[in-house]
Write the structure tokens for this entry.
Amino acid sequence: SQQGEEDPQALSIQEGENATMNCSYKTSINNLQWYRQNSGRGLVHLILIRSNEREKHSGRLRVTLDTSKKSSSLLITASRAADTASYFCATANAGGTSYGKLTFGQGTILTVHP
Amino acid sequence: EPEVTQTPSHQVTQMGQEVILRCVPISNHLYFYWYRQILGQKVEFLVSFYNNEISEKSEIFDDQFSVERPDGSNFTLKIRSTKLEDSAMYFCASRRRTRDKDTQYFGPGTRLTVL
């Protein structure tokens, strides 16, 4: 698999349920960021977690990072129909030559039914 | 809150024509990027720009592509002779990088259609 692979590829849930998306990566990272994209639109930054952090919260979002397994998860609690979008993880590689280039995964398409 | 802006939102061009995509990054940011997303595919890194020069580029960013920061505010991507496969959404991003913040902020994108 490639750097920044999400699973599942698609997730369909009912409003009020929690949504969990996972991301795996291959190289050592400086940080991992989650972005949201509504259909045909731009990328909205959701949350950044650094390589020395294990968990981070922002509102209804909870991100975990396990550097030993090279994986991260994004949990959206109490989902709403407005959360329907594609969600991408993106990694910034560790290393002195990196100027912050992000490597994106394929994304998870989340559909929240009212 | 400051935003990255991009113009135009949609550009249609004929194969072989030159296009310039424009971006205005967030004003106190120092790192600038271009990414692209072919329809239905993932976002791909093209190039990063820091201290008035290219700091990193991908294999996609060949001699047909160039970037410029002509003044203190604009950041442009030029494609010299467009191909059909250049059709994609092109995103500009900027980043400041402080001890506490390392986020890349993306613009809304320019949809490039090459006919």
Notes: The radius of gyration of chain B is 14 Å. The interface with chain A takes residues 31, 33, 35, 41-45, 48, 50, 55-56, 89, 91, 93, 95, 97, 102-109, 111 of chain B (CB under 8 Å). The mean pLDDT of chain B is 92.
